[in-house]
Design brief:
Layout (H helix, E strand, L loop, with lengths): L9 E5 L4 H12 L3 E6 L4 H9 L2 E4 L12 E4 L8 H8 L4 E3 H9 L4 E6 L4 H14 L5 E8 L4 E4 L5 E5 L14 E4 L13 H13 L6 E5 L5 H7 L3 E6 L5 E8 L4 E8 L2 E11 L2 H15 L4 H10 L8 E6 L2 E6 L4 H12 L6 E5 L4 H6 L1 H5 L7 E4 L15 H10 L4 E3 L3 H11 L5 E5 L5 H8 L2
Parallel strand pairs: 1-2, 1-4, 2-3, 4-5, 6-9, 6-10, 7-9, 10-11, 11-12, 12-13, 17-21, 18-19, 18-21, 19-20
Antiparallel strand pairs: 7-8, 13-14, 14-15, 16-17
Helix pairs in contact: 1-2, 5-8, 5-9, 6-7, 14-15
C-alpha cells in the first residue's frame, strides 16, 4: 500500500517511544498531522512528543484505537496479538510497519542516503549529518541515537536531502528508496531471523539492487563480502577502506586518547588531512564512508574537514559520561563481538591503569548464536563483570545465561564474574576501582545505568 500525505491526517504509532518511531512521529507533527501513539512506559521521549502536540497513551489497550484514525504504524517488535493491532484490523484501519512508512516518507526526497551495515550505522549517519549541516544542505536526518548538533535523533529539513539509518533486521531496509546506499560491513547478526551469513549477504545484495542506475553504492572494500555485492548491482560504485578502495586513509597515527590523524587519498591523489575527534580505528572507516558520500554530493573539502572535526560523537558511542574519584566512566552501545572488540581497542588507547568492563548481553538468541565469539571478545580487559542478559523482545527459556558465558570466559584466563543486579554491581565496583582506572559499560540494553549509578553516589 502507499500513504497519501494529503488525505491521511491522523496517524497512530504503536510503540511511539522507540528511537525510530518517535522520529517519524515528530516528522508528521512538523507537517501538521494529528499524531497519537502508545508505549509500555513513560520516558523523556514520550514526554517530549506530548509537548510537541502528540497524544500519548501509556499502556497498549484496544480503547486507544478509535475509528477516526487514518493509519496505524507499528514496529517489528510488536506482537501479532497486540490489542491495538487487533482493534485496528477489526476497524479496517490501514496498517503499515515502521520501515514501510519510512520508505513512504523517503519518496518525497530526491537524494536519499541510506546507511546500512552490521556495525557503525549511527556513527556514520551522525558524521554525515555533521558534514551536510556544515555544507548548508538543510537535510532531513533520522539517526539511531541522540546527536547533540540536531538536539535529538531527528532533524526536519526543507531540501531534497534525506539521511537515515537502514537496518537489515527482518530485511526492513528493503522497503527503502536509496539514491545513495552505504554498506559499512557485513557480519553474522540477527540469527534469530537469518539462517546464516550467506542469507545476510543476500539481503545486502537485494539492498544494493534498490539503488537506481544513476545512484551510488558506497561500500567498504576491506570487507571481503563486498565483491559479491558490487558484482550484483547496476548503479555507480565508490569503495573505501584502509587497505583497499577508491577512497583510502594513509599515514595513520593516533594521539594519546586514541583519536586518529590520517591523510585521505582518492586513488593516488591526496585530497586532504584529517584529525578525528572520536577514538578508534573503526571510526577511520566510518569517516571514510561519510567522506565518500560527501564527494558524491560535491561537498567541498573545507566543509568535509570542518564537519568531521566538529563531530564529537553520539550518545552511547564511546561516550565519556564523567569522572568520580579519578575513575573515568565511558559508555558504549556495542552488543556484537566485533563491535565490542573495536570499542575495547579504542579503550586500550585511552589513558588508564586498569580497564574494568561491565557488559550486558543483548537478547538470548544473539548470545546463543555468537556464544563462541563473545567468549573471545574481552581479552583486552583487566576485569569483566557480566550483568544478566537483556531480553528485549525475547523470553528466557533457560537455554543460555550470563553465568554460562562467564564460565567460558574465565577458562580463557580473563577475570570475570556474573553479578545479577545493577546496585550489587556498583557496590562491587566501589571495592575494586582506583584512581586512573576506566569503567566501561557496554551493551544495547540499560547497562548505561550502572555508570550513572556509580557517578551519582
Amino acid at each position: 500500500m502507499s500513504f497519501d500525505f494529503i488525505k491521511n491526517k491522523k496517524v497512530h504509532f504503536i510503540g511511539i517511544g522507540g528511537i525510530s518511531m518517535s522520529a517519524l512521529a515528530e516528522i508528521l507533527l512538523e507537517k501538521g498531522f494529528k499524531v497519537s501513539g502508545s508505549d509500555v512506559k513513560s520516558s523523556e521521549t514520550t514526554e517530549r512528543l506530548k509537548v510537541k502536540g502528540a497524544k500519548v497513551y501509556i499502556g497498549q489497550i484496544s480503547q486507544n484505537i478509535t475509528s477516526d484514525i487514518d493509519l496505524v504504524v507499528y514496529t517489528a517488535a510488536i506482537s501479532k496479538n497486540n490489542e491495538e493491532l487487533l482493534k485496528a484490523k477489526d476497524l479496517n484501519i490501514p496498517l503499515m510497519d515502521r520501515a514501510e512508512f519510512l520508505g513512504e516518507i523517503m519518496k518525497g526526497h530526491k537524494y536519499n542516503v541510506a546507511v546500512s551495515g552490521t556495525h557503525g550505522k549511527t556513527t556514520t549517519t551522525s558524521m554525515l549529518s555533521s558534514i551536510t549541516l556544515e555544507a548548508n544542505l538543510d537535510p532531513t536526518i533520522l539517526v539511531g541515537g541522540n546527536l547533540d548538533i540536531i538536539g535529538g535523533n531527528v532533524r526536519i529539513g526543507n531540501s531534497p536531502y534525506f539521511i537515515t539509518e537502514a537496518c537489515e533486521y527482518k530485511e526492513s531496509f528493503l522497503k527503502f528508496f536509496p539514491f545513495i546506499g552505504i554498506i559499512l560491513n557485513i557480519d553474522a547478526d540477527h540469527l534469530d531471523y537469518y539462517k546464516d551469513i550467506e542469507e545476510i549477504q543476500n539481503a545486502f545484495i537485494k539492498f544494493g539492487k534498490l539503488i537506481p542506475n544513476e545512484g551510488y553504492l558506497v561500500c567498504c572494500a576491506d570487507d571481503r563480502r563486498m565483491e559479491k555485492i558490487i558484482s550484483n548491482v547496476n548503479c555507480n560504485v565508490m569503495s573505501y577502506g584502509i587497505e583497499n578502495g577508491d577512497i583510502t586513509a594513509k599515514n595513520i597515527c593516533f594521539d594519546k586518547e586514541g583519536r586518529a590523524f590520517f591523510e585521505v587519498y582518492k586513488s593516488d591523489k591526496k585530497l586532504f588531512s584529517l584529525n578525528l575527534s572520536v577514538p578508534g580505528k573503526h571510526n577511520i572507516l566510518n569517516a571514510l564512508a561519510s567522506i565518500s558520500v560527501s564527494l558524491i554530493l560535491n561537498i567541498s573539502v573545507d566543509n568535509i574537514v570542518d564537519g568531521l572535526n566538529n563531530f564529537k560523537g553520539t550518545h552511547r558511542r564511546f561516550e565519556i559520561k564523567g569522572q568520580r574519584k579519578g575513575v573515568v566512566v565511558i559508555d558504549d552501545y556495542a552488543h556484537h563481538p566485533t563491535e565490542i572488540k573495536a570499542t575495547l581497542n579504542a579503550a586500550t588507547n585511552y589513558p588508564h591503569k586498569k580497564i574494568i568492563c561491565v557488559f550486558q548481553p543483548h537478547t538470548f538468541s544473539r548470545t546463543i548464536s555468537l556464544f563462541k565469539e563473545f567468549t573471545a571478545a574481552f581479552d583486552n580487559v583487566d576485569e569483566l563483570i557480566l550483568a544478566d542478559i537483556f531480553p528485549a523482545r525475547e523470553k528466557d527459556t533457560g537455554e543460555i545465561s550470563s553465568a554460562m558465558l562467564c564460565e567460558q570466559i574465565i577458562k580463557r584466563g580473563v577475570k570475570c564474574r556474573n553479578i545479577k543486579d545493577f546496585n550489587s554491581i556498583v557496590q562491587y565496583l566501589n571495592n575494586i576501582l582506583t584512581e586512573g582506572d576506566v569503567l566501561l559499560t557496554i551493551g544495547a540494553g540499560d547497562v548505561f545505568q550502572v555508570g550513572e549509578l556509580y557517578l551519582n553516589q
